[in-house]
Sequence to fold (180 residues):
Amino acid sequence: MNSALLIHMVPVMSALGLGAMAVVVGTLFGPSQVLSHLINMVFGEGLSQVMLAIICAILLPTTLVILIATAPSVPGALVFAVVFGLGSGLNSIAYGTLPLALFGSDGYGRRQGQIMSVRLVVSSMAPFALAFLMGNLGASWSLSIAALLSTVSVAAFFAIMRLTRPVVARPETVPNPGEA
Fold:
């Protein structure tokens, strides 16, 4: 969804009634990505890579909801662009570090290649899918469907977090010597 929205950011905002302001709003995306890197450097030290992935997965449907709910409001679109940039910036960090955290360094390059090949195929098809939806359903419905589909990744990352959570060992019950 990230790549589809990046390609169609200005047309989507224009279709939602922002007109030429869509270009101005779009300029906040890049600096927001840099800001997310700085925030992660300062505050993200104790954050697990799975939690980082969850945060950026939550930010994408949130940005879509912000845009849909506030359009054609320029302040709403500004918030959308900043939050979208923050999420995209964190996304670029998570894509490199999450596989390492989940699978370790053995075969990291091979595994990263497998993951990235699937990601590139999906990312290259996403702009066409969004354009098709927008052409047939309009911007609001298309973004609503995208937000709904994006929540699937949030659920997937929560499932991954549950699977990777360390198991806390329970102390074994040792019978009291006087009870035997």
Summary: The radius of gyration is 21 Å. The chain has a mean pLDDT of 89.
